[in-house]
TrEMBL record:
Xref: SUPFAM superfamilies: Acyl-CoA N-acyltransferases (Nat)
Name of protein: Ribosomal protein S18 acetylase RimI-like enzyme
Record bears the keyword Ribonucleoprotein: yes
Stretches assigned to the N-acetyltransferase domain: 6-171
Keywords, sorted A to Z: Ribonucleoprotein, Ribosomal protein
Pfam families: Acetyltransf_1
């Protein structure tokens, strides 16, 4: 049996065709299963380039093949307009190729995101998700994110804002100890 090697790295320009194909497959899969999320026009490099650069993108590769990815940035003017650039890290457009779904790659990418924020000294990391995306919201909550608020930031849908605060980890560790008096 062939051993699978999974690695998360910063994307390069050579990864762009595979990244775009992964998003295209995700959009087609979601549309075929009645799960609207993005339109094909939303997942072109021209569309991504309005807010992000290739340096913001991280890919998960299994045996060298792009199977998942996400953008990580230090500013989010749409959903967190009152927060200065560089105060927190934000996750955007997490995607797993439908051919590689249900293998734990989403959790691995979220863990990578949280670890990156911790290592770089951020007090917390943040993300947004459409309010009605129950499965995605459950995935983020399973990974320790807590709801901050739900709001109407764009006319088309309501959005749930989440954060993961590193101080919670310390509180959880402290609560695991019995205190004797």
């Amino acid at each position: 049996m062939k051993q699978e090697t999974f690695l998360i790295t910063k994307a390069t320009t050579e990864d762009i065709p595979a990244i775009l194909e992964m998003y295209r497959r995700r959009v087609l899969y979601n549309n075929a299963h009645g799960i609207p999320q993005w339109r094909l026009a939303d997942v072109t490099w021209e569309a991504f380039s309005q807010l992000y650069t290739i340096d913001d993108y991280y890919v998960g590769k299994c045996n060298g093949e792009v199977v998942c990815g996400l953008f990580i940035v230090d500013v989010d003017e749409l959903y967190w307009p009152d927060v200065d650039k560089g105060k927190y890290l934000y996750l955007h457009k997490i995607c797993v190729d439908p051919a590689h779904a249900k293998k734990g790659y989403s959790d691995a990418m979220i863990t990578y995101f949280k670890d990156k924020g911790r290592k770089e000294g951020y007090p917390e990391v943040r993300l947004d998700v459409r309010e009605k995306k129950v499965k995605l919201r459950e995935m983020y909550e399973r990974n320790g994110f807590r709801l901050v608020t739900i709001g109407q930031f764009v006319p088309e849908f309501t959005t749930a804002l989440y954060h993961y605060v590193y101080a919670w980890e310390q509180e959880k560790q402290l609560s695991n100890y019995d205190i004797e008096e």
